[in-house]
Design goal:
254 residues, alpha/beta, Rossmann fold, 6-stranded mixed sheet, 4-stranded antiparallel sheet, binds adenosine-5'-triphosphate
């Protein structure tokens, strides 16, 4: 479903991704872990087309995201292609980024009405189901400022799902939450991961969550995936010294 093929990303002279190769199969839940500043968010931003690759290709659902054919060549994709491809991908960020002047229902229906052309009735019916799924049926008329951070994040999850993405990207979705609100958000994500066929690529420091829901965990360091294993293996018997060091540091801090 997702394939990075020799992806290089630089910011000026700073090489963040070095010929990065990895794949995520349809329906898989893959978590990326690794030191701060190693480029995990950059991977998600490239998928969201918020950044462009310097070299290499990215494929989503078998189709090239980054390039399109022109004659016999492949050339960097234009805005129209990127917009089309972006519709397949949803993202939930650390900051919830809800529209503050809209109520919860409007937050969830806005994009399907505008970008997918759904009628208000269709979009609302879908939103009601999604708000039920994230445990917020009773908050449809509330405004974001009346909700806790955990509730706002669950609205953000419903909003992303309302676009029916095939891929959902999660970037440190619990980092901005008070500790007591984290579990509710993770419970909702686990439910979605186990009951839908959405493909997940998740960046998190929540090692217990990564262990609990991931099909695979990729340890990312210095622009490359240095270890890729099922969670039971990666968390209990990592092969790479850098993975062991990283896990010790993170678990000591917890
Ligand atoms: N727009 C940008 N311009 C210049 N440098 C950038 C830009 N975006 C990211 N970087 C740099 O790229 C590197 C990777 O950043 P990225 O945010 O992807 O790391 P990360 O692994 O997600 O880190 P964290 O776990 O702290 O969120 C960092 O050194 C960062 O400073």
């Amino acid at each position: 479903m997702i394939r990075f093929d020799g992806v290089v990303k630089k910011f000026g002279d700073h090489v963040v991704l070095r010929e990065l190769d990895f794949t995520v199969s349809p329906g898989e839940f893959v978590t990326l872990i690794g030191p701060s500043g190693s480029g995990k968010t950059t991977i998600l931003r490239l998928l969201m087309t918020l950044e462009r690759v310097n070299e290499g290709r990215i494929y989503v659902g078998g189709e090239c995201l980054t390039h399109t054919p022109r004659g016999d060549n492949m050339v960097p994709a234009n805005e129209k292609h990127l917009r089309q491809m972006r519709k397949r991908i949803g993202m939930v960020f650390q900051q919830f980024n809800l529209f503050p002047n809209m109520n919860v229902l409007q937050n969830v229906t806005e994009a399907p009405i505008r970008a997918l052309g759904l009628s208000k009735g269709e979009a609302e019916a879908r939103a009601v189901d999604l708000l039920d799924m994230v445990g917020l049926s009773d908050k449809a008329r509330a405004h974001p400022s009346q909700l806790s951070g955990g509730q706002q994040q669950r609205v953000a999850i419903a909003r992303a799902l309302a676009m029916r993405p095939r891929v959902l990207l999660l970037d440190e979705v619990t980092s901005a939450l008070d500790p007591e609100l984290v579990a509710g958000v993770l419970r909702v994500l686990k439910e979605i991961a186990t009951t839908t066929d959405i493909t997940f690529l998740c960046v998190t420091h929540e090692m217990q969550f990564a262990r609990d829901v991931s099909d695979r965990v990729m340890m990312f360091d210095q622009g490359q995936v240095i270890e890729d294993a099922v969670p039971e293996k990666l968390f209990t018997a990592p092969e790479q010294p850098r993975t062991r060091e990283f896990l010790h540091a993170v678990l000591d801090r917890a």
